[in-house]
């Protein structure tokens, strides 16, 4: 056994390798969809290029486990949040064992639901001297290039040019409209779609704003403007809702004294006024452009027609299936993973997705996981000060928890890999 241990990585070697792996993931994931399509178009075998992140994560997990075997100890603490993660793995195993979904569903379900949790645990094992490098730059620099990609899509690249790169109805449709009735093209830049782009932008927008307010980094204002413009052009309503809450939390934590009170007061007035205006727009008998943008459809005889009607129907179906089997149907049978497994069941709600997969116990544990992280971030901010990265993570997690009521937001690999990894990193002292 000692001879075998000599060939296993030490804690320092493991930490350096894992830090490098996380750099690749944080920098590369915003461009994953773009690179997969372009390289797949150029060389064929798109699935091989698509699997690079899974291969890297698998190697990172093997290095992590082998290092623990060498040291003969667990490299994560027994905190409340980690115990919740352990309980989640146990519930997933039991429910899936009882439900016995297909192997394809199981594989994609593990990839979607459990792999981000593994990254959350691994990130906690990276040595402190490696989690101090500029994590913020690993978020903001790629975000700047995502803005450039959005500008290129809006003003330079025609649909024909994007088709030559590999964008089509079988990969990512190069032309995504809010509704055929109006000329409003949804931008997705280098991400996998407009909704994915909108959700991804919440964190870099909050991080940029926190640096401006806390560190007076005024030179970041152009980046903030570009990120905000790109969010608007995604026309992703769920991400707008998430962003509104996240920005509110970011500003409230970042400001002090009378400025904080003034901002909260103005926000309440703006929220009431905006709510009344939106209500007037969506209840108008005339189908205006703004109504199409807000509803992604139209009002016809007091009934909404468009994506919202289909979303409501999907959520009702999910609730009915949950009442029939509150224990769960197993990993991968619902949500984006089910599309990959050949049987598409879309709930248009991430919480309902997890509830159908892992039962009521599973979704309650996942909610507890997020609430525990929020509590830990808030406690750390109060103890150590308002660090911009922790502010942005706290705000974006709160906002994205809200957006998951309307979409499978956490099922997007780019968002999940980045967020879960960063949450693991910031659990260490600043």
Which helices and strands appear, and what pairs or packs with what?
Elements: H1 2-6, H2 11-28, H3 32-43, H4 46-50, H5 52-71, H6 80-99, H7 103-123, H8 128-131, H9 135-155, H10 159-165, H11 194-215, H12 221-234, H13 237-254, H14 257-282, H15 289-295, E1 297-300, E2 303-306, H16 307-324, H17 336-340, H18 350-384, H19 388-403, H20 413-425
Antiparallel strand pairs: 1-2
Helix pairs in contact: 2-5, 2-9, 5-7, 6-7, 6-18, 7-20, 9-11, 9-12, 11-12, 11-13, 11-19, 13-14, 13-19, 16-18, 18-19
Task: Walk me through the structure.
The chain has one domain (2-425). The chain has a two-stranded antiparallel ribbon. The model has no long low-confidence stretch (mean pLDDT 87). With 430 residues, the chain is mostly helical. Helix 13 packs antiparallel against helix 19 (388-403) and helix 16 crosses helix 18. It is globular. The protein has 20 helices and two strands.
Q: Could you write a compact summary of the structure shown?
A:
The protein is an all-alpha fold and 430 residues long. It has 20 helices and two strands.
Distance between the termini: 37 Å
Kindly state the number of beta strands: 2
User: Which descriptor suits the 3D outline?
Assistant: globular
Order of helices and strands: HHHHHHHHHHHHHHHEEHHHHH
Q: Can you give the mean pLDDT?
A: 87
**Quaternary organisation:** single chain
Which structural class do you get from the secondary structure elements? mainly alpha
What is the count of DSSP helices, taking H or I runs of 4+ residues? 20
| Overall tally of domains | 1
Strand content: under 5%
**Integer-rounded radius of gyration:** 22 Å
What about the largest sheet? 2 strands, antiparallel
Please give the share of residues in helix: over 70%
Spatial strand order of the main sheet: 1-2
Q: Report low-confidence residues grouped into runs of 5 or more.
A: none
